[in-house]
Amino acid sequence: MINIKSLSHLYEQGRRIKFPDWEIADMEQWLLLGSSGSGKSTLLNIISGLLKPTLGEVLINDTDLYQLTARNMDRFRGRHIGIIFQRPHLIRSLNVLDNLELAAVMAGLPIDGERNLLLLKELGIIELAKRYPDELSQGQLQRVSVARALVNKPDLLIADEPTSSLDDENAAQVIKMLTSQAKDNGAALIIATHDQRVRDHIAKTYLL
Ligand SMILES: Nc1ncnc2c1ncn2[C@@H]1O[C@H](COP(=O)(O)OP(=O)(O)OP(=O)(O)O)[C@@H](O)[C@H]1O
């Protein structure tokens, strides 16, 4: 479902980062490993359609990502890719449920209230539906981020250092949640990390 070919990126005043070719099949789960500064976030931004690479191509479901117009790219991302950032980016003035609904609206999709409630239930945070981000703990926020990333039934779930700010217990829960939710929702999963605690849970590794 994802094919990365001959990809490299050159930041202004930076060095060229070269990315080995990478093929990810439907529903495969991968770790993206590499030392600090090796280009993990850069690659995730490229795959997510947020950063145009200097050279090479990214094919997702046979769509050449960087051949899309900006508008189509936004729609494509909203519908096919769920992103979980290191620190959750939720809208503070909206409650949890409204944050989930916004993800559908932004992708031009109808709101599926039943699915949203089911996601919150599966992630063990149904009681937080009407709470606001400022009222939640880091672990709870991370769960809401996972729910929001899944709202539009993405084909690909991307998580950038999802456990770095969590204690052992919450980290273990988030990994379990990501792997099982990706599986249940039929999505491929990429987790970028240098968190040793994550490595035992995912077999396939792409090293930068
Ligand atoms: N906007 C930018 N402009 C210039 N150089 C950048 C920019 N963003 C990243 N870089 C450089 O590109 C290289 C890769 O950065 P990147 O953030 O992708 O690494 P990373 O593997 O995610 O690191 P970390 O694990 O520390 O988050 C680094 O040398 C970094 O300094």
TrEMBL record:
GO molecular function: ATP binding; ATP hydrolysis activity; transmembrane transporter activity
Domain ABC transporter residue range list: 2-207
Top-level taxon of the source organism: Bacteria
SUPFAM superfamilies per the UniProt record, alphabetical: P-loop containing nucleoside triphosphate hydrolases
Name recorded for this polypeptide: ATP-binding cassette domain-containing protein
The entry's keywords: ATP-binding, Nucleotide-binding
Matches recorded under Gene3D superfamilies: P-loop containing nucleotide triphosphate hydrolases (3.40.50.300)
GO cellular component: plasma membrane
Pfam families recorded: ABC_tran
